[in-house]
Amino acid sequence: MIVKKDEILEHFKMSNLLDSYFSDFSNEKYLCKKAGGDFEIPLNNEELNKPKNFGYQQRTRVDYSKIESPLEYHFITQLEKHLNSEVVLNCQWCVTTNGGRFRLDFLIEFKGKKIGIECDGKDFHNEYRDEWRDALILGSNQADVVYRFSGTDLFCFLNDCIHVLYHYESQIFNKRYTEIFTRLISEELLIALKNNRHLIQETNVFSVRTTNDWGEKVGWHNLKILRRNKKDENSNWVKLYEFSKKYHNLKIDDIIKQYEFKKTTI
Known about the structure:
This protein has two domains: 44 residues, no CATH class; 202 residues. The radius of gyration is 19 Å and the shape is globular. Strands 3-4-5-6-8-7 form a six-stranded mixed beta sheet. It has a two-stranded antiparallel sheet with strand order 1-2. A hairpin with a 5-residue loop joins strand 7 and strand 8. Helix 5 packs across helix 10. The longest helix has 14 residues. By secondary structure, the protein is of the alpha+beta class.
């Protein structure tokens, strides 16, 4: 499917970001991936693997050849410049569990802690299956915590998403971020986190203001951050993982079928 540049910009005013993806609008066939929301961004492998520079020196710790979507690229180029120099950042990281092998979009490693991050484009994720997937990853000690951000939230409220990550994982961020984040994030999120510093639930929703092209506040958006933590022993993912251990020779979809079958027979 070919998507014209003007059609995308009509939905999403980010020409500085999107211009790097479009060099030729002849009848070339593009590989399209859903980025979240109601629009698609055309992309081919040659364009994706080209070095990109948005005004700062590109760092070599990100292997951009492994990034699979504009959503992931949009997220990691912004996050990477806020991370401290000791952080190891892995893209499309393969993990092995008793329910099969999976790939995390990103795995951050810092002083023994492993932080998984998933960028969920709307058409590529089933929330129920994702919960099972996270359960297998956490239970198999392939990550200590897994964060999930929706495509719409990442494209429209990227700095707010990054700051929620900072709220939980401040140790992976550099000193400069601690000095500038108040200029980057929404006022609503800043107030919400000051009033509730200890967010222990798996899913947190923050109401932030939306603006029009002139910067006028015109509405509200619910920013949803999902965080599954290995230390949360009472979370539902623990129950799912304990069930999966009974069927260690099965793949994830077959484990889910067994779980659903058991529920109907109780």
